Amino acid sequence: MSTSLLSRFAASPSCVPKDCSPKLCTQRVSCAAVAVPGSFGKSERCGFGSVRSERRLTVHAVDGEQRASAVVVDEPRTSTSDDSGTADWEGFGAQVSAEWDGYSAEFNFAGEPFELPSNIVPDAFREWGVEIHDWQTQCPTLAHPEKGRLWYKVIRLHPTVGCEADAATIYGVEKCDVQEKAAALAYHNSGSYTIVWRGKRVTKEQLGSGPGKEVFREGDAIEVEQCLVHEKKRIRVLQHLDPRRRVTVFREAYEGPFRNGESLGGCAIGTPAFAKQKPLEASALTGSWRTDLYSAQNLQHQQEYSSSELVSSGVEDVERQLSDTNLYLPLDTWTSLSKSESGGTVVETGWLVKPDQAVVSVCEFESSGDLKGVSLRLEKRISGE
Fold it and tell me: Who contacts 175 (Cβ-Cβ below 8 Å, separation ≥6)?
């Protein structure tokens, strides 16, 4: 990765409006620290095992032009840290390869949602004075048998009046080939992942016979995508490392095995729109939390695309206190863009899945712009808090 990519994106106080209410930060309280080869920093190596469920299934691959093996859930088996990288990738593939349906919305740095373009909103909504902030989306996702090769596409549907499932039409399609357009992928066998993308998304008219518009990536800008999974639902948050950033949030639910988006869901999906829902309260995160930490290895200073599993790397306690760095969003979700002690940039995204349980992704860059580390934190509130 170019050492200059991030130099102009260092976090600054301009990331947060001056009239913001108090937010939260985290402070490490205690950690049994030992050196872990290949991990970021120092932490306790716990050697936790995991349970994976998997079997092989042949499905149509990207665009129906070829067939490839995917992985689907079957009988569980126990795996340990001695498993090969291929088995780790298959465990991740069993959870991520699917049809994911839901909604997406875009927010500014103050947490305010943007309205959809007026030219695609039906006249009836304008006549009723109804503002539309959410895209209905479908996200067919496939982890190929080749380790590190992840592919998905985002299908955005035109808003419709009432439940017009049969009339659902495509507004645009974004095809995302991680191996081709990303700098790094860190993945966990729960289906959670972090991707460091290269380039900004540009929407163009679809070429050929495909419906709607097509989205491409151009330039050298960095965009971080953090996907958090819990009980067949997931939150994906994408943002560029820019003080004037816009944050895109997807809430998606598992709809079924991967079918390459062959059918449109209309309004029959079970996940509601969310952009105007109440944001997470800062006080919901205050207190002491115990964290199972998972870290990616061998992603630092890579000049070409690389991928790594997020493996168990310790247990630590953190204290969440009021701060001004977090952006609180609907869906019990938060994200922050802050400066590290060494002058780099830290992107943190979290999801409070229960009042006492959170899933958190942290991605850190050095001041030079190089990726420093990626971690996944499974947090539980310490009893008595």
Answer: 151, 153, 214, 215
Mean pLDDT value of segment 16-37: 38
The answer as to whether 234 is a domain residue is yes
Q: Which structural domain range is residue 242 located in?
A: 7-381
Q: How far is it, in rounded angstroms, from Cα 196 to Cα 217?
A: 13
Q: Is the pLDDT of residue 60 over 60?
A: no
286 within a domain of the structure (yes/no): yes
Q: Is residue 308 helix, strand or coil?
A: strand
Residue 384, phi-psi category: left (phi > 0), alpha (psi -120 to 50), beta (remainder):
left
Residue at 212: amino acid letter? G
Pairing of strands 371-381, 287-296: antiparallel
CB 46 within 8 A of CB 312: yes
Quote the tokens at residue 136: 């209905």
51: Cα separation from own chain's centroid: 23
Residue whose C-alpha is closest to residue 103's, from 146, 154, 54: 154
C-alpha–C-alpha distance, residues 134 and 361, integer Å: 24
Which residues sit opposite 187 in a β-bridge?
193, 309
Instruction: Extract the tokens encoding 329.
Output: 């969003």
* DSSP state, residue 112: P
Residue 369, token pair as written in the block: 């712009």
Number of domain units in the chain: 1
32, pLDDT greater than 50: no
Domain presence at residue 2: no
Q: Which residues of 203-222 are buried (b: 16+ CB within 10 A; e: fewer)?
A: eeeeeeeeebebbebeeebb
pLDDT for 62-79, tens place per residue?
444 443 334 433 333 333
Q: Is residue 1 part of a domain?
A: no
